[in-house]
Amino acid sequence: MTQIDTSVPHSARIWNYWLGGKDNYPVDEAAGDAYTAVFPGIVTIARGSRAFLGRSIRHLVHEAGVRQFLDVGTGLPTVDNTHEVAQSLAPESRIVYVDNDPLVLAHARALLTSTPEGATAYEPISLFEPERIIEAAGKTLDLTRPTALILSGILGHVADYDEARDLVRRLLAGLPSGSYLSLNEGSRGTDLAYEQAQDAYNETGAVPYYLRPVEQIEAFFEGLELVEPGVVSVPLWHPEPGAPTEPIGQHGGLGRKP
To answer: Where do the segments described as Disordered lie (predicted)?
Structure first.
């Protein structure tokens, strides 16, 4: 059994706390509260990112007919996980989660529920091994059929931008024509208070997360056909009627592999 250190805050558990999840400890709540004291908008960003994920999956199921999902850098289970959204709309959907964080692995059983018609699997592989990810995904997914690659808030943990782009390219190379990339990341240029809070957090010795300019987030979609409205602040991407559309420092989009 993996030993989980509850004496130091953990970014996945802090994010879980901001999303209203239960898989966190007092040390994570304290770190999360300290961050929100500096920048209360982080909860809006966390929940806006999760809401974008749900809307992009619904679009993929309804508009694109996608029934296979490869979610890399899954994070801790919270609400509206990829398989829950996809299988609620198309019970035959098949989902592979990939995350090599021992903490996520300890909670992976919550990600492995599935409809009888579909399937979910969990592969404990590093983002930095894209070919291994594709090979493992092929045990559950039919990689001759369109598959949606989901990268939600994971690439900010890759310090080197060129390496992050290379990882996206290598993952997409293993997927067929008609596949999609759903990606959202923390961004610079929209909310200075967020940028200052995140930069300060990165200097605390915690696992850093790097915000990137919007044009760098757009470049992750190089070679893909962007679904309208392109790469935008996530509340502006196919908003639900009546939902807030105030831009936040989180940009994302959906692109199709030709």
So the answer is: 238-258
